[in-house]
Amino acid sequence: MAKMTMIQALNSAMDCTMARDPNVMVMGEDVGYFGGVFRCTEGLYQKYGAHRALDTPIAEGGIIAAAIGMGVNGLRPVVEIQFADYIYPGFDQIVSELARLRHRSGGEFWSPVTIRAPCGGGIRGGQTHSQSPEGIFTHVCGLKTVMPSNPYDAKGLLISAIEDDDPVIFFEPKRIYNGPFYGHDVQANVATTWSAHPAGEVPEGHYTVPLGKAAVLKEGSDVTILTYGTMVHVAEAAINLSGISAELIDLRTLLPLDIDTIADSVKKTGRCVIIHEATRTSGFGAELVAEVQEECFWHLKAPIERVTGWDTPYPHAYEWEYFPEHDRIIEAMKRTLEAD
Amino acid sequence: MALSQKPAGHFAGDVEDHADTQSGLPVNKLYVPEASSRPGQNPDFSDLEIPPAGTTPKPQTDTHALDMQSLAYGLVRVLDDEGNALGEWNPNLSAEQMRQGLRHMMHVRAYDDRMFRMQRQGKLSFYMKCTGEEAIAVAQAMALEKGDMLFPTYRQQGLLFVRERPVLDMMCQCLSNSKDNLKGRQLPVLYSWKENNFFTISGNLATQFSQAVGWAMASAYKGEDHIASAWVGDGSTAEADVYHALLFASTYRAPVILNVVNNQWAISTPQSFASAGTTFAARGLGFNIPSIRVDGNDFLAVYAAAEWAAKRAREGHGATFIELFTYRSEGHSTSDNPEGYRAKNEAQAWPLGDPVERLKQHLIRLGEWSEEQHEALAEELKQSILQTWKEAITYGTLEEGPHWPVSTMFEDVYKEIPAHLRKQRQKMGV
């Protein structure tokens, strides 16, 4: 075991898989010689060479298309899109091609591409360095969508994603690359570096965290909190500040969704609050509301609440008014309790 | 050639200088390209500059892109109007190889004719012919090796004939019946054939062009000498994927052949909306990729260009960009009526003729073929296609089935069926 930040854990995941399988290679803008703008691919170029840590032109559509072709020809490309906000030029290749190859070809062709993209706000990133577009991808059949919340999961989930024969969109919340984040206005009496956090203990070798499995991080009896990414830690702080007995579930994989773990919890608590940074309307939270309503209707004691980003582009100056902070989470939890 | 000169082979619809008639000075005015002809007009291709066959030099395979610019603005032609094969680009095929090529082209045409008629009789939902463009897929496929990966559009069915895809299987795909290898999921003509390296055709234009470059990069990554070959139409060159393909192919010297089939029309839109008043091949030069413009109705020229490009790729010199200059003789698809946007007999006015007729003429001139043999072969292919059609419909039709079991719709979305899809399948009761 070693102390790792999320960046180091992701780097270790790529290093481990590249060492085991010569068909695994990483590619993207600035990922090669320089080691990535967030340092996630640092050292891979020096260790594995220019053709396995491949610097690319600035063309997300071209990068993803090339990766698809490489995957069809037996490689396992791990693509980095520098910011999730810049994934859109590659959207046609992802939706029309990568996600559909296997189905449209009757199972003849497929491409095991993993697309890593730093996502999320809380870093003064403004409109184009803060977005959380996961809901756009969970709507696409044929893709798996993953978002880790800590170094241990980040490494184990990324190895699973790379080794999976289906395409995986792997969103990395950049706000927690270097340490957990509990909210802008939370003076949390808890670890603010990964070295002081239990999930910062990461095995140096190969291991996996399975795709499609949620984690119950904290047990509780009165309300179920469903969230993922940075908001796992903000929700944890809110629970601690509120004194409410809340059960905290980190979804880890959004699609396929671990509905069994979710339903077991909501049937127990009878209440559910869903939290994400992404904008509200047609966000992934809406899917969660619908699933919970369908699976747990007769167990629900209160309307399902959603705490999300507002339906606006991500603002620069009003970051902490936009970002779903602990006070909004606590209010939502209280509303569900009062509804009974 | 001097770059200030107008490139050879330009055509109706090219940019003309605007000038104010009174002052004679240029005026700023939105320019909208025009079609080569419109309904009610007489088709006229007299502006087209067609260089004589055999006059274009054939460079060494390691020649730098900038040292062969004239090939991007010219037109490589081997067969002249009398059916003689001339010049350095003559691939010197045996009579047997040429008869094989002719047979494949005639086979494609017989297949297209039958399938088009079956659509008109309501037996198929949709079909797309490649009439007039048969040489492009057939000749290139014959020049490539079986391990080379093909990334076609929906109008290169000739590739499948050369690689000996059973016609029965192609028909079953178009019928979406119980023997369709795509299990009824795809529109007719969007074939896929993994076994012989024919990539799954997508409805989304140009996406495969840049994927082919990635495939070729992987081939080089693994140290294999298989190359990729990709096709796109004139209209689809406007898509960003074509720019990506050219850039990535050049940056990584990928072993790939990038083909633009310029058949003059993108549904109702003339090629001038995408060509920017010059040749498509010229576009490759800015990417430092050797680029050639080829008479796409000249079987021997298409073969020679593909052979040259494949050799370059296998020798490690990287990509070649080929514009295949041809004409879409028929409608875009069974859902299209070309009489709504172009002169009724424009195909007959096309100065580069018909690829089948031209190769036939050449073989007859060599004493290796005859009108009688030609007619007999056409009849034989027509009959065999008809027999195969009769067999294909025994495996089902779109309207009447049988099809694959409905439950298979939920398969292959992922490698394993996830819980939510199992649940949906269950809900459907299949």
Summary?
By secondary structure, chain A is α/β, with parallel strands linked by helices.
Outline the fold blueprint.
The complex is a heterodimer of chains A (340) and B (430).
Chain A: E1 2-3, H1 6-20, E2 24-28, H2 44-48, E3 53-55, H3 60-72, E4 76-80, H4 91-98, H5 101-104, E5 114-119, H6 134-138, E6 144-146, H7 151-163, E7 168-173, E8 201-202, E9 215-218, E10 223-227, H8 231-242, E11 246-250, E12 253-255, H9 259-269, E13 272-279, H10 284-296, E14 305-309, H11 319-322, H12 326-338
Chain B: H1 69-73, H2 95-120, H3 134-143, E1 149-151, H4 158-162, H5 167-175, H6 207-221, E2 228-233, H7 240-251, E3 256-262, E4 265-266, E5 269-270, H8 272-275, H9 282-285, E6 291-295, H10 299-314, E7 320-325, H11 346-349, H12 355-365, H13 371-392, H14 419-428
Parallel strand pairs in B: 1-2, 2-3, 3-7, 6-7
Antiparallel strand pairs in B: 4-5
Helix pairs in contact in B: 2-3, 2-12, 2-13, 3-10, 5-13, 6-7
Q: Please state the structural category of chain A.
A: alpha/beta
Cα Rg of chain A? 19 Å
Radius of gyration of chain B: 22 Å
> Largest interface: which pair?
A-B, 43 and 46 residues
**Mean pLDDT across all amino acids of chain B:** 95
What's the tally of helices of chain A?
Answer: 12
Structural class, from helix and strand content of chain B?
alpha/beta
First-last Cα distance of chain A: 46 Å
pLDDT averaged over residues of chain A = 97
Task: Tell me, briefly, the overall form of chain A.
Answer: globular
Quaternary: heterodimer
Overall helicity of chain A: 25-40%
Uncertain segments of chain B: 1-15
- What's the number of extended β-strand segments of chain A? 14
Number of helical segments of chain B?
14
The portion of residues assigned to helices of chain B is 25-40%
Main-sheet strand order of chain B equals 1-2-3-7-6
- Biggest β-sheet of chain B: count, sense, barrel? 5 strands, parallel
State the major sheet of chain A: 7 strands, mixed
Number of strands of chain B: 7
